[in-house]
Specification:
Elements: E1 3-6, E2 11-13, E3 21-27, E4 30-34, E5 37-41, E6 46-47, E7 60-63, E8 67-73, H1 79-85, H2 87-135, H3 162-173, H4 183-218, H5 226-237, H6 244-259, H7 266-281, H8 283-286, H9 306-314, H10 318-333, H11 342-366, H12 374-382, H13 387-390, H14 392-401, E9 413-415, H15 416-424, H16 439-448, H17 454-462, H18 464-484, H19 503-506, H20 510-521, E10 529-536, E11 541-549, E12 553-561, E13 564-568, E14 580-587, H21 591-611, H22 623-632, H23 642-654, H24 659-672, H25 683-692, H26 697-703, H27 707-737, H28 743-752
Parallel strand pairs: 9-12, 12-14
Antiparallel strand pairs: 1-8, 2-7, 3-6, 3-8, 4-5, 4-7, 10-11, 13-14
């Protein structure tokens, strides 16, 4: 067999690539990688020796230096023949197989140890951070995802006896020359090892994902991470504080931990570390003054007793006012406002209940007030109640922007106050409540249950104030908590300990929203289009389906949060009305990523709305029915590799066995990665997404040469060509009649060209 030479850095075999040859290393070193581990192969090793029971590779192999490789054609059915006819090759395969197996088992043991250590390091780091904050009388910040993290529990682990079993088996097999071994025994051994290697690597993948989750908490692109917690604390206390040395040491230890993690984005890591070191070299210049001691901007007056102003304006009863003032004072003094003990939890619940009572009374009064005080506007739009709790610098910033917030109802971006006023003015209808009941159905239910009379029902349906109160007591309270994102530590009042980024950078504007939606639509061009029936008997057009784009209403909730909510896909029963999405006014997470997720959620719910009771009936092909069928029967799908099935199983566990959540995660990958030419999905998921969420023409043209999309794109192009041909004929018919092309028909023809 001819030997070929490959330069360093050559990918010899990619994981999931079909196994059609065995490769023997004649010279050089090859790096073998898989999610959760890596090892090296040397002269005499056989690439693929541990994967012989599968049709495709589980491992990626890349040359570390100039390598000479001899390749032998191979198919699973040929293994017996190779072992019988070529004893020398059999010896190479078995010897290399035992060595690779041992490497993989060692990687597994190391990963188990790392997961345990990494978890405890993270928890100890947070305790250390809390201790520093308590000492300096600073309320510690909480990170999204930290509450949900727990010690690793493997549902399917590697049997404890496996390593010892193969150590002994290797000794027994190699006692006699391998050339003398029964080929059938060697074949069974190789196939059995393949199965066990696959099982071990599957567990390693779970551990890799677990460590990646912790790595993301330590350092991430959105800066909601431990590195920022410690660095911000260091900048705040200054270089002359006794604890600055300890904080610098903690950050150095964190960098050492991160450098060894394979999932860390190397470029992002270098950028963050360089930025930190620059600030560290000039720490005095970057030392922050504590917000409580900061002076407001020159054009902002001192804000004093905000809470008194709010309570007085709301005209809440004296008992509630006194209880709320006392609770806010106690809350502001709490060293850890995110504490999960009973006393802290009860305190937050008590404040939450009174906050909404005061908000409702103050808002109803403001409806007829043409000069609402600025502090009340801050209360309505930000959840602001107290300058000490918010931090005086933050309070001054909120005061400076409250009269010119960068929203725009004409572009469908509302503050919560603008949204509630739109309902009061009859421009919008109240949202459905958490039981999916709209205002009309709610009022009717009150009449049916005898709580109100028919006359009262008619009055309530016209009463705009009661409609606003319905919105305040239902959607507002539920969504405010969800968008905040950290459910167990939620409290609706604005507090500086929840601020994880600079307020001016995290403030959501109509421009930012428009830019994010445009980015999504440049990839999934049909995301917000809905089908309507168009008829024009005068022109002989009986029934044509045309697509109309209807962008969602986006409501900004008065909190500093990390999540978004797709609350309802339409208004009432009309399918041509905008959906309603809510995010935080101060968004700590990446805005585009959140809106991508909400778009995926909208697509799923809109499909269910259109399909009705048959949304998961595969006899009526649709996005939801095909995806439901794919997940429900993925274990029996012959088009999916064992590795792909394992990924689906793992992702379903992460999605808490929710088909919708699983789809949304795939949709995020579709828009954020596949749309950029970075494959992340398996062939079945990719085909479904391409069929129902096709890329824009510019992206399709770029992907035409990619074999991953070839078959699906050909089917799409055939169907698209048929539709375009139909409209070309219709255009010709209207032209022959001397009639003008209706704008609806022209718009649909343009849509097909996207």
């Amino acid at each position: 067999m001819a030997v070929k030479e490959f330069p360093a850095g050559t990918v010899l075999v990619q994981s999931d690539q079909p196994i059609n040859a065995l490769h023997v290393i004649a010279k050089g070193t090859v790096r073998a990688t898989y999610p959760g581990g890596e090892f090296y192969l040397y002269k005499g090793d056989v690439i693929g020796a541990c994967e012989l029971n599968f049709d495709s590779h589980l491992i990626t192999y890349q040359t570390e230096e100039v390598c000479s490789i001899a390749s032998y054609p191979y198919a699973t059915a040929q293994l017996s023949g190779i072992l019988h006819a070529n004893p020398d090759m059999a010896t190479r395969i078995v010897t290399s197989m035992f060595r690779q197996l041992q490497e993989i088992l060692d990687q597994y043991e190391l990963a188990r140890f790392d997961c345990d250590n990494f978890y405890h390091y993270l928890m100890d780091s947070y305790k250390g951070y809390q201790a520093f904050c308590t000492k300096h009388k600073i309320s510690p910040r909480s990170l999204p995802g930290l509450e949900a993290l727990s010690e690793l529990v493997l549902e399917e682990d590697v049997s404890g006896w496996l390593a010892g079993f193969y150590t002994q088996l290797r000794a027994l097999v190699t006692k006699t020359p391998l050339k003398g071994q029964d080929p059938d025994f060697l074949q069974g051994l190789l196939l059995k090892v393949s199965q066990d290697v696959y099982s071990v690597m599957s567990v390693c993948r779970v551990m890799y994902d677990y460590k990646s989750e912790i790595t993301n908490l330590l350092m991430s692109e959105n800066r909601l991470d431990f590195f920022d917690l410690y660095a911000s604390l260091l900048y705040r206390i200054g270089s002359h504080d006794d604890d600055s040395t300890s904080l610098i040491a903690a950050l150095s230890t964190m960098m050492i931990q991160l450098e060894s993690q394979p999932s860390i984005d190397k470029e992002m890591y270098k950028q963050r570390v360089a930025e930190y070191r620059d600030k560290l070299n000039s720490l005095d210049e970057y030392t922050e003054t504590p917000a409580e001691e900061g002076a407001p901007p020159k054009d902002v007056p001192d804000i004093v007793d905000s809470l008194g102003t709010i309570l007085s304006y709301s005209k809440i009863d004296e008992e509630t006012a006194a209880a709320f003032r006392h609770s806010i004072l106690q809350y502001s003094k709490m060293p850890d406002k995110n504490n999960s003990d009973d006393a802290s939890r009860k305190m937050r619940l008590m404040i939450t209940k009174m906050f909404y009572q005061i908000y409702e009374k103050a808002f109803v009064r403001s409806l007829n007030d043409f000069e609402v005080p600025k502090v009340l506007k801050m209360f309505f739009n930000f959840g602001y109640v107290d300058e000490t709790l918010a931090g005086k610098e933050n309070a001054a910033y909120l005061y400076s922007i409250v009269d010119h917030l960068p929203t725009d109802p004409s572009r469908k971006v509302y503050t919560i106050y603008e949204w509630l006023r739109a309902i009061y003015e009859g421009k919008k209808t109240p949202s459905r409540n958490e039981f999916d009941t709209d205002y009309q159905a709610h009022v009717h239910e009150l009449k049916v249950t005898g709580k109100i009379s028919p006359a009262e029902e008619a009055t309530m349906l016209k009463d705009r104030t009661k409609q606003v109160v319905f919105e305040l007591q239902n959607m507002f309270q539920s969504v405010n908590k969800i968008t905040f994102g950290r459910i167990s530590s939620f409290c609706p009042v604005f507090s500086d300990h929840n601020i994880l980024k600079e307020l001016d950078k995290s403030l959501v504007s109509a421009d930012k929203v428009e830019q994010a939606f445009n980015q999504i639509r440049s990839i999934d061009f049909g995301a917000y289009y809905r089908e309507m029936v168009y008829t024009n008997p005068e022109l002989g057009i009986g029934k044509e389906y045309v697509s109309v784009e209807i962008l969602p209403d986006l409501i900004l909730m008065p909190n500093v949060g990390v999540r978004g909510v797709m609350w309802q896909e339409i208004e009432g029963r009309k399918r041509t009305t905008p959906s309603r999405m809510m995010i935080s006014l101060f968004q700590m997470e990446d805005l585009t990523s959140i809106l991508v997720r909400l778009t995926g959620d909208f697509r799923w719910e809109m499909c269910k709305r259109v399909q009705g009771a048959r949304w998961n009936d595969i006899s009526e092909p649709s996005l939801t029915s095909e995806y439901f069928d794919y997940i429900q029967f993925y274990k029996k799908n012959r088009d999916l590799s064992p590795d792909a099935k394992d990924k689906i199983k793992l992702n379903m566990q992460k999605a808490k066995n929710s088909f919708k959540e699983m789809y949304i995660r795939d949709y995020e990958s579709w828009v954020l990665y596949e749309g950029a030419g970075s494959p992340r999905l398996n062939k079945i998921a990719r085909a479904i997404l391409f069929t129902y969420c096709p890329f824009a023409k510019e992206i399709r043209d770029k992907l035409k040469m990619n074999p991953l999309y070839k078959e699906t794109m050909e089917r799409y192009d055939i169907k698209l060509g048929q539709k375009i041909h139909h409209y070309n004929n219709l255009f010709q018919k209207l032209k022959n009649m001397g009639a003008e092309i209706p704008p609806e028909i022209q718009a649909q023809r343009d849509f097909l060209g996207y």
